């Protein structure tokens, strides 16, 4: 579901946000979540936004405040993954789940998967944790994206992506003007999209163990304008279609056709934002012979039509010229 559906939550006054730092110190992921929200809280004031930061130990020890409703709760950890005892896992999820929207960032995402909180939902699990449990791929719909929002659950792969994730949340809740102010405070120029891939080369991740998977993705990336059929890709890399689908499911949390479609749509988004090609040209360059199919697929993935995406690109320029 699109992040824009959170807009109504931003009307709550005050909006109460809980951030649970599950690490041993302020990690990159924790800082990427906490600092932007603290900036927004200073900009808007306590009448509109209240941000509370707790340690996970406070919750496990029973020292955390009880009976306080938060509209949004996030558990954040960039530590090396370590399973939680079932009692601790239950205490953590029970503390957060009364929130209307809740989730996790970094390695904490796998705790939520193991707790059953992400069952059947699109989930951005850090790629490095894909091999930690066979259970994850069976319960959640794992995606290679930077972050996801599905069924009231938020997930982010952590690291520097936590900044993009938080700024996307800020825009959804409070609009692009507030997001722009926070970007200026943090000296950030560009916010990566939800559907951007986790930035580690497939060859580095799977090259030695899964060369056929790396080869298949390379074929997809090289054939955006004229997409190959799944059977053709399987034949070209020398494995059966069933084997190819199994590897995509296990390591990328998707089927080949869906992964290929999202790859083409990501390229289309880049072209819409970074070039002056017409929308029809962009669709053709990314393998869509039908303008309606392109628009429908784009809207399903990004929650916005190609035309609106192009208009959104033009708005900042129009705003800056009128201010001069």
Short summary:
The chain is of the alpha/beta class. It is 50% helix and 12% strand.
Known CATH architecture of the largest domain? 3-Layer(aba) Sandwich
User: How many domains make up the coordinates?
Assistant: 3
> What is the count of β-strands?
8
Question: What percent of the residues sit in helical stretches (DSSP H or I)?
Answer: 40-55%
What is the SS-derived class? Answer: alpha/beta
- Strand order in the sheet with the most strands: 2-1-3-4-8-7
CATH structural class of the largest domain: Alpha Beta
Query: Low-confidence stretches at least 5 residues in length (pLDDT < 50)?
Result: 316-324
Termini separation (Å)?
38 Å
Q: Outline, from the CA principal axes?
A: globular
Query: What's the SSE pattern?
Result: EHEHEHEHEHEEEHHHHHHHHHH
| Biggest beta sheet summary | 6 strands, mixed
**What integer is the average pLDDT?**
86
Task: Please name the CATH topology of the largest domain.
Answer: Rossmann fold
GO molecular function, one term: DNA-binding transcription factor activity
Organism: Noviherbaspirillum denitrificans
InterPro entries: AraC_XylS_family_regulators, Class_I_gatase-like, Homeodomain-like_sf, HTH_AraC, HTH_AraC-typ_CS
Keywords: DNA-binding, Transcription, Transcription regulation
């Amino acid at each position: 579901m699109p992040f824009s559906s959170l807009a109504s939550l931003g009307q709550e006054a005050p909006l109460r946000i809980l951030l649970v730092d599950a690490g041993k110190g302020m990690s990159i992921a924790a800082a990427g979540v906490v600092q932007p929200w603290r900036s927004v809280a200073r900009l808007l004031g306590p009448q509109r936004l209240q941000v509370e930061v707790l340690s996970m130990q406070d919750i496990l020890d029973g020292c955390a405040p009880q009976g306080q409703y938060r509209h949004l709760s996030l558990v954040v950890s960039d530590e090396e993954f370590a399973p939680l005892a079932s009692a601790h896992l239950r205490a953590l999820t029970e503390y957060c789940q009364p929130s209307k929207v809740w989730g996790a960032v970094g390695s904490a995402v796998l705790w939520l998967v193991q707790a059953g909180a992400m069952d059947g939902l699109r989930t951005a699990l850090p790629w490095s944790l894909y091999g930690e449990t066979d259970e994850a791929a069976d319960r959640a719909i794992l995606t290679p994206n930077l972050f996801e929002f599905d069924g009231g659950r938020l997930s982010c792969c952590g690291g520097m992506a936590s900044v993009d994730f938080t700024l996307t949340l800020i825009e959804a809740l409070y609009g692009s003007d507030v997001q722009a102010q926070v970007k200026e405070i943090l000296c950030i120029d560009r916010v990566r999209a939800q559907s951007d891939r986790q930035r580690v080369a497939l060859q580095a991740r799977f090259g030695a163990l899964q060369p056929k998977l790396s080869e298949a993705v390379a074929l997809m990336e090289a054939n955006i304008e004229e997409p190959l059929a799944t059977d053709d890709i399987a034949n070209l890399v020398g494995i059966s279609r069933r084997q190819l689908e199994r590897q995509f499911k296990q390591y990328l949390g998707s089927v080949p056709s869906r992964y290929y479609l999202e790859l083409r749509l990501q390229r289309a988004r880049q072209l819409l934002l970074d070039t002056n090609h017409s929308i029809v040209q962009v669709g053709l360059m990314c393998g869509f012979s039908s303008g309606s199919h392109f628009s429908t697929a784009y809207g399903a993935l990004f929650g916005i039509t190609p035309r609106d995406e192009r208009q959104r690109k033009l708005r900042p320029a129009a705003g800056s010229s009128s201010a001069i």
